[in-house]
Design brief:
Co-chaperone for HSP70 and HSC70 chaperone proteins. Acts as a nucleotide-exchange factor (NEF) promoting the release of ADP from the HSP70 and HSC70 proteins thereby triggering client/substrate protein release. InterPro entries: BAG2, BAG_domain. One of its GO terms (molecular function) is transmembrane transporter binding. It comes from Capra hircus. Keywords: Acetylation, Chaperone, Coiled coil, Phosphoprotein. By secondary structure, the chain is mainly α. The chain folds into two domains: about 30-100; about 105-195, Up-down Bundle (Methane Monooxygenase Hydroxylase, Chain G, domain 1). Helix content is about 80%, strand content about 0%. It has helices spanning about 1-65, 65-70, 75-90, 105-120, 130-140, 155-160, 165-210. Helix 4 (about 105-120) runs antiparallel to helix 6. The radius of gyration is 31 Å and the shape is flat. It starts with a helix and ends with a helix.
């Protein structure tokens, strides 16, 4: 009878320890789940800062190369450029880096996609129109919406092989490049228009002298 009591107490002790360990493990797991949410929130916040930095640099660059900057006095332009350069310098002091965990296959896909985009960019000066069309087909390959134009199927399969975060970065880079091309094209057209207007004015003045 005494032996039975001792055995029962031993089993009860083992049960208490097992129950306590399970509770402790559950609490630790819950804490880690909460921390995981905070880690993902941190990465999202850092990514948002990265994107904001890119947008600010693009806006500063766009102002410096705008048509309005060409239509003010040299002194005003110099002063505004100094301010823009100061803002750009301060923006560049913000260093944020969100590393993406990639498999070897994803790493290769990213390198391949980057190389294709770099090759198109290198041809900007040779043929801006063709480069824009090529970039549009690459961008359509990254879009989840029904594209308005042709889709580069080969590039699409490469991008699908990239990590999700890299897919988003590739799409953002293409968007930025397309905006830069559009702004450059507008600047060229405005410059050609102003040259044409100036030439017409000179011609009219010359004809007025002879008349």
């Amino acid at each position: 009878m005494a032996q039975a009591r001792i055995s029962a107490k031993a089993n009860e002790g083992r049960f208490c320890r097992s129950s306590s360990m399970a509770d402790r493990s559950s609490r630790l797991l819950e804490s880690l789940d909460q921390l995981e949410l905070r880690v993902e929130a941190l990465r999202e916040a850092a990514t948002a800062v990265e994107q904001e930095k890119e947008v600010l640099l693009e806006m500063i660059h766009s102002i410096q190369n705008s048509q309005d900057m060409r239509q003010i006095s040299d002194g005003e332009r110099e002063e505004l450029n100094l301010t823009a350069n100061r803002l750009m310098g301060r923006t560049l002091t913000v260093e944020v880096s969100v590393e993406t965990i990639r498999s070897p296959q994803q790493q290769e896909s990213l390198k391949h996609a980057t190389r294709i985009i770099d090759e198109v960019v290198s041809k900007f000066l040779d043929d801006l129109g063709n480069a824009r069309s090529h970039l549009m087909s690459l961008y359509s390959a990254c879009s989840s919406e029904v594209p308005a134009g042709p889709v580069d199927q080969k590039f699409q399969s490469i991008v699908i092989g990239c990590a999700l975060e890299d897919q988003k970065k590739i799409k953002r880079r293409l968007e930025t490049l397309l905006r830069n091309i559009e702004n450059s094209d507008k600047a060229i057209k405005l410059l050609e228009h102003s040259k044409g207007a100036a030439s017409k004015t000179l011609q009219q003045n010359a004809e007025a002298r002879f008349n």
